[in-house]
Amino acid sequence: MYLDYFGLKENPFSIAPNPDFLFMSERHKEALAHLTFGLGETGGFVLLTGEVGTGKTTVSRALLKQVPDNTQVALVLNPSLTELELLATVCDELKIDYNHDNFTLKNFGDVIRQRLLENHWNGGNTMLLIDEAQHLSVEVLEQLRLLTNFETDTRKLLRVVLIGQPELQQKLKQPELRQLAQRITARYHLLPLTINEVEAYIRHRLMVAGCQRPLFPTAVVNHVFKAAEGIPRVINLLCDRALLATFARDQMQVDKSALEQAIQETALSEPEKSVNTNYLYVGAVLGCLALALVFLYQQWPRSQPEVAVDNAVVEAPLEPVVAKQEPKVTFADVAPAISSNQDQLQEWQELRKSNTLPGNSWQLLLRAWGYDVVSAQANCKLVPSLDLKCLSLSGGERILRGINLPAVVELEDGGTYFYAVIRHWGPKVELWIGDRSLMVTERWLKRRWNGEFQILWQPPRGYDGILKQGSQGDAVYWLDQSLSLLHGQRPRRTYIFDGELSRQVQRFQQQQSLNADGIAGVFTLLRLNEQIYVDQPRLLELN
Questions:
Q1: Which of 91, 213, 415, 525 has the highest CB neighbour number within 10 Å of its CB?
Q2: Do 56 and 152 belong to one domain?
Q3: pLDDT value of residue 346
Q4: Helical H runs in 300-395?
């Protein structure tokens, strides 16, 4: 309707996935690089997650364009399948003939294995890409793992790409899928666009559609970013409606009034009473936290650290940056290095000054968990979308070593306060500061650290602060599954925390030298995670 009016050849903000409008932000490029690397010569699983509309399909299309001609690709776009249906779909995609009337899991496995070998013998590869993978059942995911058992002496014969919403990350943390989780060679969580990327995104789509003049002033773009929260699909909806409103008003540029109308029409505006509702919500959360604090003191032997949800400093959106490589080792030991070499002293001073805000350290801590994000978005507001939680504790070395997770700490040296990540604790302590990895002595660290730290951890789905007799829900089910696995028992598959489950918790607490009260608080769950999630980062080096 408005195309001729604005001099457009086609609709610039259609939600149809037109490859002509492909826009690869820094985040999309990073995701593509991670997936490409993970699909290297050895094969295995790679994982791409993100909220609805963040551009996962964009990345997957770009990935498919890079697939070599000698790679046969099987696409599964409807993952709500049984095990047999999945294998039949794989056979259909790989053009494998089979008897539709009489086939078993073994028969499917045999013919698929034969095709994988044929592709390998012919110098080719085979890739399976599954979209909306959060809908895959545990049984189907396990069947996928079995398919990746087909291998030569040097590599897997099948590469599997799982693309899905954040719930997929949570599903893969289930104890029965731990073997599959260990085979994920690369994972990336796709974040929304930054404010600068939103402006570039809108400009790019208008230019492709034939418009060379700015239709969205900067002030309006900022409003689009806020309303759409950086999600490309929502940006398209808003901009399309805003252009229509501008056309109806006989104007040549979108103004805030037209955008507000678009927000109303796309039902993105908040109700007037939302503020009061938020206060009630915050009050409820604080009440839960207060109850949690009481029980946390009972969970850890002797002196108990104070526990609070982290309120990390949130940086303003910055220009997109490419994620840095792993920190580099520069000094064998900071203490003697900075006292004997003027050049290294200067480098040390600059390193401290460039890390006085926590963004870089949170970026590094998230990287230790397998997520690459820019420092501007690396904070505790992000982690719930990754199914993680922030936790602030105190208690110094003893508590941190007991938790056995890397942590963000604030250090003070020469009057300068700066942030770092305690990554490993062995004979010496490995610190990640910016793009550097430094080995320091315990004595050096303790002189500069007040004992407070912040960690990331993986609470079970539905966890609301404490699990005890009478609790119900998914978190209780996970607790029963996890303890049964550790104790070599058959899971009862219960959603109710009863006396038997309390005794199982007590048994585990006794094994871990915790306060054996039968209540699964934070410290009990942290120890349980250490036993269950073999791929989570650890502070202490394994012998």
A1: 525
A2: yes
A3: 75
A4: 334-340, 342-353, 359-368
Closest Cα partner for 171 from 140, 198, 202?
140
Compute the distance between CA of residue 139 and CA of residue 137 in angstroms, rounded to an integer: 5
**Residue 78 shares a structural domain with residue 197:** no
Q: What is the DSSP letter of 468?
A: -
Q: Residue 437 is encoded by which pair of tokens?
A: 């990895």
Q: Does 298 fall in a domain? A: no
Same-domain pairing of 41 and 132:
yes
Distance between CA atoms of residues 229 and 377, nearest Å: 13
Please tell me whether residues 218 and 343 are part of one structural domain: no
One domain for residues 245 and 124: no
Judge whether 405 and 455 are in contact, CB under 8 Å.
Answer: yes
If phi over 0 gives left and psi between -120 and 50 gives alpha, with beta otherwise, what is residue 312?
beta
Considering Cα of 502, then 508, then 511, then 513, what sign does the dihedral take? negative
- Considering the domain boundaries, does residue 325 fall inside one? yes
Instruction: Kindly give, in sequence order, each residue whose CB lies less than 8 Å from that of residue 358, ignoring residues fewer than 6 positions away.
Output: 312, 313, 379, 408, 410, 419
**Contact (Cβ atoms closer than 8 angstroms) between residue 78 and residue 134:** no
Q: Chain centroid to CA 23: how far?
A: 22
Q: Among candidates 409, 418, 428, which has minimal Cα distance to 337?
A: 428
Contacts of 274 (CB under 8 A, 6+ apart): none
b/e map of 298-317 (b: 16 or more CB within 10 Å)? ebbeeebbebbebebeebeb
Q: How many residues does the chain have?
A: 543
Q: Is 36 in the same domain as 185?
A: yes
For residue 113, give every residue at least 6 positions away whose Cβ sits within 8 Å of its Cβ, in sequence order, or none.
150, 157
User: What sign does the CA torsion over 380, 384, 388, 392 have?
Assistant: positive
Query: Could you say which of 173, 190, 207 is where a domain stops?
Result: 190
Note down the domain range covering 490. 474-532
Give residue-wise pLDDT tens across range 51-74: 888 888 888 888 888 888 888 999
- Where among 156, 190, 224 does a domain terminate? 190
Per the structure, the count of domains in the chain is 4
CATH number at residue 483: 1.10.101.10
Alpha carbon 25 to its chain's center: 18
Asked if residue 286 belongs to a domain, the reply is: no
67 and 151 share a domain? yes
- Rounded CA separation 193/18 (Å): 19
Q: Where are the alpha helices (DSSP H) in 354-498?
A: 359-368, 396-403, 442-448, 474-487
* DSSP-assigned states of every residue in 110-149: HHHHHHHHHHHHTT-EEEEEESSGGG--HHHHHHHHHHTT
User: To 10 degrees, the CA torsion angle through 391, 393, 397, 402?
Assistant: -60
Spans in the chain with pLDDT lower than 50: 270-340, 543
List of residues 6+ apart from 275 with CB closer than 8 A: none
Nearest CA to 184 out of 130, 132, 145 is that of 145
CA dist 369 and 456 (Å) reads 9
Residue 287 lies in a domain: no
Q: How distant, in Å, are the alpha carbons of 44, 94, 113, 255, 491 from that of 41? A: 9, 20, 18, 52, 38
